[in-house]
Amino acid sequence: MTDADALPHRFEGQVALVTGASRGIGFAIAQRLVAEGARVCLTARKPNPLAEAVAALPAGRAIGVAGGSGDPAHRAETLDTIAREFGGLDVLVNNAGMNPVASPLVDLDLDIARKINEINLLGTLGWIQGAVRHEALQFAARGGRIINVASVTGYTPSEGIGMYGVTKAALIHLTRTLAVELGPRIRVNAVAPAVVKTQFARALYEGKEDDVTAAYPLKRLGTPEDVAGGVAYLASDDASWVTGQTVTLDGGLLSAGGAA
Ligand SMILES: NC(=O)c1ccc[n+]([C@@H]2O[C@H](COP(=O)([O-])OP(=O)(O)OC[C@H]3O[C@@H](n4cnc5c(N)ncnc54)[C@H](OP(=O)(O)O)[C@@H]3O)[C@@H](O)[C@H]2O)c1
Fold first, then answer.
1. Which of 31, 54, 33 is nearest to 44 (CA)?
2. Whether residue 1 has pLDDT greater than 60
3. 91, 132, 185, 252: which could join 16 in a potential S-S bond, CB 3.0 to 4.6 Å?
4. How far apart are CA 223 and CA 98, in angstroms?
C-alpha cells in the first residue's frame, strides 16, 4: 500500500472517471487519484459493492454510477452525472474488462466473443467518444488524458484466453490510433499488466503462487497499487510528452521470455 502522505498532489482540482472501480485495479486507481487530489467518479455493475467503494474514499471526493460499460445509456448517464456534480472531466481511465470463459479460440461461442469485444474494446471506444463529444465536460479544452487498461496478453498469446488477448491487442492499437487522432489536446496511453493479484486473476495464481512468481525476475506478482502508480504517471504532467504508448507493468515477465 502506498503511503498517501508521501505522494505528490498532481491532480489537485481535477476530475477523473475510472470504470470498473468497485474493487481490484480500478479501485486502487481511484484511490491513488483521490490521494493525489482528484475527485473521482467510479463505475461498476453491482450497486452495493460500488457504494461501499465510494464510501471507503474520503467524503466529497468520490461518486459512483452503477451500470455496465457496454451499455450506451449507462455511459451517457455517467458522463452527464460527472458534468452536473463535478463540472468537467480531465482523466478517463478505461479499466472495465472481462473474460467470462476459458476456451481455445476455435471452440469459442461467437456470441461470447462478441460480448468480450463489446465490453473490452467497443465499451472503451464508447467511453472515449462520449467524453470527447460531451460539451459540458470540456474534456479536450481541459487537456484530457485517457488511459486504457490493456494486458500483456495483448502482446503474447495466453492459453485459453485468446479472445481476451485479441481485445487487449486491439486496445493497444486503439490507443496508438486515438493518440494520433486526438492530439495535441488529448493524450491517450495504456498500461499492460501481467498477473495482478485480484479476484479476476485468482485462478491464475491461487494455490501455485510460488511456481507462478518463479517466472518473474522481480519474484512477485503485481498488486493493484503497482498498476495505479503507472496510471497516475500517465495521467499526470510528468508524462506531458507521452502519447500513444503502452507501459508494460510485468515485474520483468516478458523480458524473461514468459507469458501471463
Ligand atoms: N488482474 C490481472 O491480472 C489483470 C492483468 C492485466 C489486465 N487486467 C485488466 O485490469 C482490469 C481490471 O481487472 P481486475 O483484475 O481489477 O478485476 P476485478 O478485481 O475482477 O475487478 C473488476 C471491476 O470491474 C467491474 N466490472 C466488471 N465488468 C464490468 C462491466 N461490464 N462494466 C462495468 N464494470 C465492470 C467489477 O464490478 P462489477 O462486477 O460489479 O461490475 C469490478 O469493480 C480489466 O480490464 C482486466 O482485463 C487485469
1. 54
2. no
3. 91
4. 18
Cell of 156: 503474447
Q: Which helix (H) or strand (E) holds 164?
A: helix 162-182
Separation of 94 CA from ligand 1 center, angstroms?
10
In this structure, what DSSP letter does residue 209 have?
H
pLDDT at 179: 98
| CA 23 – ligand 1 centroid, Å | 8
Cα separation of 101 and 113, whole Å?
10
Residue 35 has pLDDT above 90, yes or no: yes
Structural domains in the chain, CATH included, are: 11-249 (3.40.50.720)
Say how many C-beta atoms besides its own lie within 10 A of residue 92's C-beta: 30
pLDDT score of 217 more than 70? yes
Residue-level length of the chain: 260
Ligand 1 pocket residues where CB is under 6 Å:
19-26, 43-46, 49, 68-70, 95-98, 119, 149, 151, 193, 195-196, 198-201
> Residue 188 is placed in which grid cell?
491517450
| 4 pLDDT above the threshold of 80 | no
Across 141-148, average pLDDT: 98
Nearest CA among 109, 132, 159 for reference residue 17 = 132
Q: What is the pLDDT of residue 2?
A: 65
Q: How confident is the model at residue 139 (pLDDT cuts 50, 70, 90)?
A: very high
Q: Is 216 a catalytic residue?
A: no
